Amino acid sequence: MPVTEYELYLASDLVFSGGTVRLVPGYTGDNDVILTVTDDDNVLDGDLNRNEDGNDTNQFGFAEFADGSTLGGPNFNVYSEEQYTLTAPGSPTITLYRIEMDSDPFSRAGNGDLVGYLPSLPLEPGVTYSFTTSNTVPSNDPTYTEPTGAICFTGGCLIETATGPRPARDLRAGDLVRTRDSGLQPLKWVFRRQVTAGELRHRPDLRPILFEPGALGPNMPERRSWLSPQHRVLARSAHAELLFGEPAVLAPAKGLVNGRSIRVDTPRDGVDYIHLLLERHEILCADGIEAESLDPGAWAMRSMTPQARHELQSLFPYLTTHGFHSYPTVSVREAGILAR
Asked: Which residues are in the Hedgehog/Intein (Hint) domain (predicted)?
């Protein structure tokens, strides 16, 4: 059955008070819960019709907490108990799902153990949101999306093209870029987003990942290089084949962080993020790193700014939101194992 990984807020990282909610001061994301859901459809159901068992009897979950503890397993139903619609001046509307797991599978009894809170978009540190509450019922069941995050190159990344390496910020639609598996291919769409230093201070989820020279192998990268946190790079090694049964897998950059040669960075002047879309999902060469082009899957689309999403959908109305990956993918947690 399809497997989806979510990143949830730990309950103690949120402050609920009198119809409002906010992140605790100093939130870093270090306590986020990793939830893996196995299901036979594309909907995250609630439990309105089945007391703490969940409406979908084929929807199972396994949660991993930062302290090493776990909850659930292949026979434990997971579900959205209720949802909160969050609003704040100047901020996008966010839906926050209260995720629970059945403590006594298939009993029609037991308790719903709180796993954490799943946001449709990250909450902004320092912002207090007003909310309304509703049950998760068939009419508002969310479809599965992965944790939010942008798949972007930074502006200074040198991308291999038909005319040699060029900064990502200089590329335009129609330029030929060199792909690992399909030779030279034209860019279909390029979009730039500038993230200020202030945004990076208040949004840890937007901070780029810095790769020191040789962090992934000889000349990989050839120089210091930065990618967005959810940007996947191609990891090719006997270790990958031993762990995942594949000689090459796509691993999220933030899952490879080791605190030394690969680490989270907060550039003093902010960062320019560049979306590069081709006809299909491809592997490009950026500063010597083999990294993916934009995969227009549902979660990547939702992570974009409204302007970027509108422009992309206007230019390519046929574009599917069911991403096709050129190589097998691994989760952030699995990438962490690979990086050890």
From this structure: 151-297
Please give the residue range of the domain that contains residue 204: 153-339
Is the residue at 60 inside a domain? yes
Q: Left, alpha or beta for 258 (phi > 0: left; psi -120 to 50: alpha)?
A: alpha
To the nearest 10°, report the CA torsion of 162, 165, 166, 167.
150
Q: Which residues contact 100 (CB under 8 A, 6 or more apart)?
A: 47, 52, 78, 79, 80, 81, 112, 113, 114, 115
* Whole-model pTM over 0.85: no
pLDDT digits (tens, 9 = 90+) for 191-249: 888 888 877 876 677 889 999 999 999 999 999 999 998 899 998 877 777 777 888 88
Ramachandran class of 198: left when φ > 0, alpha when ψ lies in -120 to 50, beta otherwise: alpha
Evaluate whether residue 101 is within a structural domain: yes
Burial 94-131, CB ≥16 within 10 A → b, else e: bbbbbbbbbeebeeeebebbebbbbbbbbbbbebebeb
Answer yes or no: do 86 and 205 share one domain: no
**Number of domains within the chain:** 2
Average pLDDT by stretches of 10, the chain with 340 residues: 73 94 85 81 67 67 87 85 88 85 66 86 85 68 45 92 97 96 92 80 81 94 93 83 82 90 92 88 95 68 56 55 63 75
Q: For residue 147, is it within any domain?
A: no
Q: What is the CATH number of the domain that holds 335?
A: 2.170.16.10
Whose CA is closest to 298, among 152, 144, 167? 144
> Does residue 148 fall inside a structural domain?
no
Residue partners of 51: CB distance under 8 A and separation at least 6: 108, 109
State the residue for tokens 């097998």: 328
Kindly state the DSSP code that residue 205 receives in the 8-state scheme.
G
Phi and psi of 311, rounded to 5°?
-65, -45
